[in-house]
Amino acid sequence: MKSPNPNPPQICEDTMLPIITTFAWVPPFARGFVRDIRARWACEEVGQPYDVVLIHNAKTPEHRCYQPFGQVPTYRDDEVEIFESGAIVLRIAERAGQLIPADPAARIRAIQWLVAALNSVEPFVMAIAVNDIFEADRDWSKARHAKVAEDLQARLHDLEAALGDTEWIDGDVFTVGDLMLVSVLGGLRGSQQLDSFPKLASYVERGEARPAHRKAMADQLALYAEPVAA
Ligand SMILES: N[C@@H](CCC(=O)N[C@@H](CS)C(=O)NCC(=O)O)C(=O)O
């Protein structure tokens, strides 16, 4: 295995469980939104236990060896160490042979939706979060809100049309595509952005009601309820 990191988190030899790396602490507004939720959720869906390694600072050279952009999550198992939540979810699914159809056409459609979630939907979700939360103190932020919201609404309109009346995005089977779409749309939790899209809103509700999502979310929230260890 090519390991660019001289000090990667070590798989615990007693358990040999995959490791998900995430932040030891995040501000209250970010709790429930940190992207390790995607890896946790995928593990819970396929019944894969995992260990969590907490980091206090992602911008160190050591962590950047592992995640070049100094972000979380990262993931490591007995064969790979990778970053990017999309790649991580795919790895967990492929390793388990679950959440990803065996039929080649259905398989690539599931991957297509995972990529669409990250590449065609998430930028619009992030744009409004960046404008309204991270850059709320800039003098242009309030003026820019309407345009960012308009762009997001247009994208949600198209996504709702693509979903139609199906239970999941490609029919009646829940795949990595749904996991990522629901997770990305979950970034709008607490806003009114889904109010005009009842089908999308129930789709997110269905996804987040899955026991695996509930467990993953509860575990992330429990982590941030704890005082930070030094
Ligand atoms: N495309 C990356 C995005 C990772 C990302 O934005 N992670 C956030 C936490 S949810 C982070 O580490 N933010 C800190 C930063 O960017 O400095 C992925 O999906 O894994």
TrEMBL record:
UniProt cross-references to InterPro entries, sorted A to Z: Glutathione-S-Trfase_C-like (IPR010987), Glutathione-S-Trfase_C_sf (IPR036282), Glutathione_S-Trfase (IPR040079), Glutathione_S-Trfase_N (IPR004045), GST_C (IPR004046), Thioredoxin-like_sf (IPR036249)
Any single Pfam family the record assigns to this protein: GST_N_3
Gene3D superfamilies assigned: 1.20.1050.10, Glutaredoxin
Limits of the GST C-terminal domain: 103-230
Protein name listed in UniProt: Glutathione S-transferase
Native organism: Sphingomonas glacialis
